[in-house]
Write a structure and sequence with these properties.
By secondary structure, the chain is of the alpha+beta class. Helix content is about 20%, strand content about 35%. It is built from four helices and twelve strands.
Length: about 230
């Protein structure tokens, strides 16, 4: 009887310890995902605005763990995915697996890490939402948040400006086969020029169908046309 009681108590303690180290999701916990503890900055609470896609943790699934629902939020400014663990600490999902997809269940937006050509010409990697991926082309969207530093009053009459996170216009990228993603130039002529040998055909389609190169649905229509060629 004593042995049986011992094993029951041991099992309960082991289960509780595992849950403390796991990830919150509906129905249980998982300890198989690579992650690091997030060091929260006290200064962040003084900054106005939000660096997150959504301030609250929202329901999401991670590829490879499709039977589980995680609580995740996307830090756009630092380009990282955070989740709340079973110990109520906040963790950052490591970017070790570039093929890992994160599906936000309410919006149906899927995020994944892709290589892309940065503004300075180098190759970077970061999270993008996948708008369309079929055939030789893929259309991606990258959310963007900028940091505006605080400004002190210069005359004593003008109001000081607090440090602020500000959401700016989403940027769209296109992938040719397996090459790094390229920023879509919203100038129709310059955009069509990247399609060697098809410049006139692409430009004609854009003009005829009144394609807006910063609109999700229009870009999907365009890439479907490109994949048909």
């Amino acid at each position: 009887m004593k042995n049986k009681l011992f094993y029951i108590l041991f099992s309960l303690i082991t289960t509780a310890a595992s849950a403390q180290q796991g990830i919150n999701y509906a129905g249980g916990a998982s300890t198989k995902l690579d992650y690091t503890l997030l060091n929260l900055s006290d200064g962040d609470s003084q900054i106005k605005g939000s660096k997150y896609l959504t301030d609250n943790f929202i329901r999401a699934q991670i590829s490879g763990y499709n039977d589980k629902v995680f609580a995740i939020r996307y830090d756009i400014f630092n380009d990282q995915m955070e989740f709340q663990g079973g110990d109520n600490q906040i963790y950052v999902i490591n970017k070790d697996n570039i093929f890992r997809e994160i599906l936000f269940l309410d919006s149906k937006d899927t995020y994944r890490i892709f290589d892309y050509i940065g503004d300075q010409g180098g190759i970077n990697s970061g999270y993008f939402s996948i708008l369309y991926s079929l055939g030789g082309y893929t259309i991606l969207k990258k959310n963007k948040v900028v940091f505006i530093d605080k400004k002190e009053s210069s005359t004593g009459y003008d109001a000081p400006r607090p440090a602020t996170y500000k959401k700016t216009k989403d940027r769209h990228y296109i992938i040719f086969d397996d090459a790094p993603a390229v920023l879509i130039d919203t100038n129709k002529k310059r955009f069509s020029s990247i399609f060697s040998g098809k410049e006139k055909e692409v430009l004609s389609f854009i003009k005829k169908n009144k394609i807006n190169l910063s609109n999700d649905l229009d870009l999907i229509e365009l890439v479907r046309f490109l994949n048909s060629k």
